[in-house]
Sequence to fold (298 residues):
Amino acid sequence: MKNENVAALASVRTSDNSPLLCRANDNATLPRDARLPINRCNLPAVVLGGLTYQQHPSPLLIDGVAELHADLFRRLNAVPAEARAEVFRDYLTVHFRLERPEEMGLSGERRGQRQSRAKANYVRMIRGWSFDSDSREGAVLKGWVESRFGLMPRYHGQSLRDPSGDAYRRYLEMRSQGLYGTNALEAQFDLVYAYCQLDLALRHPGARHVTLYRGVNRMADHEVLEKGEGGRYVILLNNLSSFTCSRERACEFGDYILAVNVPLSKIFFYCGLLPGVLQGEDEFLVIGGVVDVTLSTI
Fold:
């Protein structure tokens, strides 16, 4: 993984003359219709989803996770790197009774239905995303990002810019179906995100960004907020998107390559975090917002 160390910002000017937070530059700000007024983390969506955050990130903490699972993080900090994934898996299996769903009250009139819902855990959802990000599993993950970080999904099979439209209703239905009868699935995602952040911090101390790539066929498929020179664009990503750390791999998915300096704090999951969950493509699941990207040809 290619990391780029970025020095911490000592102070940020907030006047109209500030090049970082200039009020005239609306493209640096997350559009109002792409965010919720409240979320469940330590920064509001308008901040964590803006261009300034991409340039100068800070940790994102989901409410209550560190406090409720302090014992897990003590264990993770105490074991060698090669043992962390096993400790994490064991904790989630026991805490959420993933192998004994009946102890958490899961029941169903039909045996097949019961088994199906019992398998709807964090592993199944992430694997489902890797096959099709517009699937029911994808809707659940995008809904989790919406709930925790306040970033609205922009695309799920179709554009979701109209919250009163049929496409948005279908997204909500898929999200609800994916969550129905599961065992605190979004709480499982909370821990996956927190574990990913801990793992990245321990493996890459001091790093703030990683350069990731995405293959595209045309920029018209993305929400372009501003076009600059030399292939530079400011775009609004979907609230959860797939990238790869391999430029060669990105070439397989489009004729053009987007290169983005992604804050480590916006990585929800990456290939290799938990062996066997994601395989191939060097995939990273990245939380969205406004970003500065560079477009180049193969």
Notes: The longest helix spans residues 185-203. Confidence is low (pLDDT under 50) at residues 2-24.
